[in-house]
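Exam review. A common question shows you a sequence with its structure tokens and asks you to describe the fold in words. Practice with the pair below. Do the first one on your own.
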Amino acid sequence: MKISIITVAFNSEKYIQTAIESVLNQDYNNVEYIIIDGNSTDRTLSIINEYKDKINILVSEPDKGIYDAMNKGLKLASGDVIATLNSDDMYIDNTILSKVAASFAQNNCDIIYGNLYYVKSNDTEKIVRKWITKPFKKNAFKKGWHPPHPTFFVRKNIYLKYGYFNLGFKLAADFELMLRFLENHAASSFYMNIPMVKMRLGGATNKNLKNIINQNFECYNAFKKNNLPVSVLYPLYRLLPKLFQFK
């Protein structure tokens, strides 16, 4: 089984080396690594080029934002299974992809996901929050549940059947895609109850209150886009589980 990993970058010189090495150091050999750069103006490309012999596809050109860049990577990916790893994130150890591949082989499913740890941006050993999820059940999304997208591994044929990121969502296209796959199209899934990814605090969505509010409205609108019923109290249901994730 070939696994394609897509990293999207723009002026990511501070942390991208960690992301790249966390992919290249995996003990699973059948990996296609794709980096989509948004025409960075800092040292991002110079850092990427230090690993160019081990990167399968590199694109550097202007894009319309992170989800547009991810869509470019999805369309280029040739793997049986595809996942994205943000330029400031990292896999928690070098066995994650081999565990994912083994799990796909053992479970007849379309999607595999797991847990995520939020860490301090300047000390990735310091865990601030643990996103411990659970197996998907129908209607779980409208109760505030959803998987951490950086742990979301999907068979390529699911993207071909049900589409890529909807660029009408600026902050919650990943949420809309997971909602579409799991709730709307009932793609089969398996939950691996292990930490998979470390995410540094301070991403685009959570950097200020305005973005958090806007993302919650986008998540609400994602239900409407998919013709799924949802309570007007959904933004509250979405926020409540996070109160129990702090260490």
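Now try the second one, then compare your answer with the model answer below.
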Amino acid sequence: MAKMDREDPFKLVMVMNEWHFEAAHIPGSILVTNREDAAKKLRPDEEIVVYCSDDMCSSSHIAADRMERAGFEHVLHYKGGLKNWSGAGFPLEGSLIQG
């Protein structure tokens, strides 16, 4: 959240499946579901923040680890994910979000 407030350049990446992304995601984030997606959508030298649903979801932790092993240099893990984001009062986008 502080990175967004400061307008730091980084990619915010949801690492769940397409259905989950379409249902609810953090505004401005992109979906990466596999290594091919990561190679197409991300550069190894850019700062990347990965997230999933909440701190009980292991997908973002696993994705961050795999990205680092694949040569991505600046990968951060947003452990709280969607639950923490919406619980803090920040907006979500998606088909299940009521406006």
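Model answer, second protein: The domain at 2-87 is CATH 3.40.250.10 (Oxidized Rhodanese; domain 1). The helical segments are 2-6, 18-23, 35-41, 59-69, 81-87. Full marks require stating both points clearly.
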